[in-house]
Specification:
Preprotein translocase SecY subunit, two-stranded antiparallel ribbon, 5 strands, 68% helix, 18 helices, 5% strand
């Protein structure tokens, strides 16, 4: 514990690091303030009363509300959060696999990265406007308790609400970029994480109310908290787990210097895909419930939504299988063994015992396929845990989000990345980092 406080003192001794941390905290505070600034013309009390009575954000909108820290429930200008930017990034990343023009831009280095960032921003505007229109329609369709949520939903109100929510998303995107450039950690990921953490006090309150009313023994809650610690430890282990492939480089003379001859390693992560498989699978499985919400009188849609609602066996089974599939799918997009093999061959590198070229590509791909399987199964188990906790252990829904699933993976992954950057600043200034025997490894700048 003394070592921990010593590290905290060292952090604030470094002026640059101190300024970066304070800047990051200030921006995150601004993000939280924006999640409470309501769109004009919306009766927030009526909206919250409707949500409390069971007519609230479900399906995809419910997942959005979790990521934006309740901003949708507040009908705030930041109701869309940063998710349109994430969607645009994913679309361009997938399109880069099939479109040769985007592949060429990706290979242009820093100039290519700037072009892709500009394309992402433009696509974010269109996605945000489309989603903002859907959110406004959902708010208008929400029925309050004896009062309308939007008393006067004119066309002018629709246009102004869409523009404000779109501007809110672009503002959050800009704030995230400012954190990345002038703060500490990945700005976009930190904004998502702070939105999830903002729900934690409500989750603790729900859990405490069960204990205070003697709804169940306090021992059960102690066991649940211990289980959460075990889940977090497992997530850290899988997130940090790598399979290192040894690589050697042939010696070569350049002038009077000898280059090469040393051994390096290619780190293959057990969980290369991160949290994306869960988000993909969850988005698809929420579609039946979302469509059924717009057609409440269509019985077969209601039946399909009930069969694939969280808590049912079919939902858990299909959810797990889809996560395994999307883990392999996203890993294939994020890591290209053939490209790695070609780069090794160009730089006179080789894996001991494996021929350069296609044989190296096949060797890396076989290893990646084997180590991805336990990572995919682990993601499926973690994703199903909240459903199991709600239906079997009777855990409150808000608290169950922190028992596993997307929330815990994002929080742990972003925290590790941020700690890795802080640790790097400490080591550069010759201070002890968070770990004296080694360095905390983040996910190499990968965002959520």
């Amino acid at each position: 514990m003394n070592n921990f406080f010593t590290i905290l003192r060292n952090i604030f001794k470094i002026e640059e690091l101190r300024q970066r941390i304070l800047f990051t905290l200030g921006v995150l505070l601004a993000v939280r303030v924006g999640s409470f600034i309501t769109i004009p013309g919306v009766d927030v009390d009526a909206l919250k009363a409707s949500l409390a009575s069971g007519g609230g954000a479900t399906g995809l909108l419910g997942m959005y509300d979790m990521f934006v820290g309740g901003a949708f429930s507040n009908a705030a200008i930041f109701a869309l959060g940063i998710m349109p930017y994430i969607s645009a990034s994913i679309i361009l990343q997938i399109a880069g696999v099939v479109l040769p023009e985007l592949q060429k831009i990706q290979r242009e280095g820093e100039d290519g990265r700037r072009k892709l960032n500009q394309y992402t921003r433009i696509l974010t505007v269109f996605i945000a406007m489309l989603q903002a229109w859907g959110v406004t329609a959902k708010i208008v369709a929400t029925t309050g308790v004896n009062v309308s949520v939007v008393p006067d939903p004119t066309m002018l109100w629709y246009i102004s609400a869409v523009l404000m929510m779109t501007a809110g998303t672009m503002t959050m995107m800009w704030l995230g970029e400012q954190i990345t450039d002038r703060g500490i950690g990945n700005g976009i990921s930190l904004i998502i994480m702070i939105g999830i953490i903002a729900r934690f006090p409500t989750a603790i309150t729900q859990l405490y109310s069960l204990w205070a009313t003697d709804a169940r023994p306090w021992v059960v809650d102690v066991v649940l908290m211990s289980a959460i610690v075990a889940v977090i430890a497992g997530v850290v282990l899988i997130t940090q787990g790598v399979r290192q492939i040894p690589v050697e480089y042939a010696k070569r003379m350049e002038g009077r210097r000898v280059y090469g001859g040393q051994r390096q390693y290619i780190p293959l992560r057990v969980n290369t895909a991160g949290v994306m498989p869960i988000i993909f699978a969850q988005s698809i499985l929420f579609i039946p419930a979302t469509i059924a919400g717009f057609f409440p009188e269509t019985m077969w849609l209601q039946t399909a939504a009930n069969n694939f609602s969280p808590g049912s066996g079919w939902y858990a089974l299909l959810f797990g299988l889809m996560i395994v599939f999307f883990t392999y799918f996203y890993t294939a997009i994020a890591f290209n063994p053939k490209e790695v093999a070609d780069n090794l061959k160009k730089n006179k590198g080789f894996i001991p015992g494996v021929r350069p070229g296609q044989a190296t590509s096949d060797y890396i791909e076989n290893i990646l396929t084997r180590i991805t399987l336990p990572g995919a199964i682990f993601l499926a188990v973690i994703a199903i845990l909240p459903t199991f906790a709600i239906s079997v252990l009777q855990v409150p829904p808000f608290f169950a989000d922190f028992f596993g699933g997307t929330s815990i993976l994002i929080i742990v992954g972003v925290a590790l990345d941020t700690l890795a950057q802080i640790d790097s600043h400490l080591k550069m200034r010759h201070y002890d980092g968070f770990m004296k025997t080694g360095r905390i490894r983040g996910r190499s700048g990968a965002s959520v």
